[in-house]
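User: For my dataset I need records formatted as: sequence, then structure tokens, nothing else. Please produce one.
Assistant:
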Amino acid sequence: MKNQRILLIIGGGIAAYKALELIRRAQDRGYEVTVVMTKAAAQFVTPLSVSTLAKGKLYANLFDPHEEMDVGHIRLSRQADIVVVAPATADLMAKMSHGLADDLASATLLANDRPVLIAPGMNPKMWDHPATRRNRAQLVEDGVHFIGPMSGEMAEANEAGTGRMAEPAMILDAIDGLLGPLRHGPLSGKHVLITAGPTHEPIDPVRYIANRSSGKQGYAIAAAAHAAGADVTLVSGPVQLGAPDGVRLVTVETARQMKHAVVEALPADIAILCAAVADWRTTQEADKKQKKDGSGKPPILELTENPDILLYVSREAEPRPELVIGFAAETDHLIEHATAKRQRKGCDWLVANDVSQEGVMGGDTNAVHLIRDQGIDAWPKADKQAVADRLVEEIIQHFQ
């Protein structure tokens, strides 16, 4: 990975502060980082901070007499292996999709012939605006790669939704995937099958049984496994997340559909089953919306068990994956229930987390216990990408 070069363009959004961590983490992975800041970005993070972390490799002025003597805006992109825009504001996306070039950032993007990865960061209503949707569609057609945005609480008071910039670790995993430095990495040649998100079990055409799983942990694991060189298949229930670059995504809604997709994706060397599959479904889905009848009594729903995907992969799949990892979301007696589940299901490892804690399901952080034959390891609370990275490191060590 040495000497691979990132040109980082920092847009003018509140998420610009994450660019500081992105620079540091990229350098930790061996990348050289050169930065272009927009005028608006300097309102959120200081050029001095960025310049210090980037070791002086900071540019901001399209009309700098010294830098433009050799057409600096073209040189900047041509010297890079990849151009990353983080955060990519609605304004920058609009300029990119329409070919505008009125500052150093947009001129460099227009003169670029390298892969482009953008990490959008903006208010949810801006992200959902028809103009932004049109711009995104055009950029995808132009070959621009996206990571995020993610869903969650926004900087503005009482604002939540999809618009948060992806975390630096996720962006770096996407960079790794695009540049391919780890295609011969420690998990190269291994097929990793991952399930993520909830399942939706229909009651009638407008109602379903589900849970609060966001899919963030599973998607983070998929990105980390791909970055380590694995061939990754991600079977996902309904979530508001973009597929990690380089990962084969299969979308489903129900538990039965998820099991079918898992069976179709086998054989695999490693199975990581962290989807929050609904335990039950109605025995019969109504073909019309169920209405109140005036009696004050709710309709009786007859339930039946859904297929147990973890049990199937652990005990019935032929050939069985060499390493099967299950997940357990518990609200009480965490270790006791999780240990019993591992024995009952027959998986090799089990990752347990206490979802009674506020903000775990649907949130960005997790605190888990890894249960296996060697014992139980308690991991400190961390963002879900960090948890994913550590789990993949444990998998790598297992196969060494």
